[in-house]
Amino acid sequence: MKNKIFMGMLLGVIAINGVMSANAVRRTSGNNVTRMSSQKTRYIGVNKARSIALSRVPGANSSHVRNLHFDYEDGRPVYEGKIYFKGLEYEFDIDAVTGRVVSWDVDRD
């Protein structure tokens, strides 16, 4: 009887581990699949990303930032957003880990 209970508990632990492992797969754009590391990645955070973007547009402030959100570009975690200031639209991607500006586009609003 004790062996049956032990085996049931063991199978339950194995099943839970399988579900957790399956959740460690993250789908990105297209058919690409990236495996998540067992270590937690430290992201710079949305406030730091906003600050980095604003530092490139003298005179702009937080009220000019729109649609700033976390996303994946080509499997890379980024913060992407837009700044509207003085008739211009600045569109950007900032690496969510390093804070490096990955892309920066400026167009007339």
Tag the structure with descriptive keywords:
109 residues, alpha+beta, four-stranded antiparallel β-sheet, two-stranded antiparallel ribbon, 6 strands, 38% strand
Strand content: 35-45%
How many DSSP helices? 2
Mean pLDDT: 79
Q: Strand order across the biggest sheet?
A: 3-4-5-6
* Residue runs with pLDDT of under 50 for 5 or more positions: 18-38
The largest sheet, given as strand count, sense and whether it forms a barrel, is:
4 strands, antiparallel
Oligomer: single chain
Order of helices and strands: HEEHEEEE
Report helical residue fraction: 25-40%
Shape: elongated
Number of strands: 6
Q: Whole-number radius of gyration?
A: 21 Å
Judged by helices, strands and strand pairing, the structural class is alpha+beta
Q: What is the rounded distance between the termini?
A: 74 Å
What does this structure look like?
The structure is a single chain. Helix content is 28%, strand content 38%. By secondary structure, it is of the alpha+beta class. A hairpin with a 2-residue loop joins β3 and β4 (76-85). The relative contact order is 0.14. Mean pLDDT is 79; it is low at 18-38.
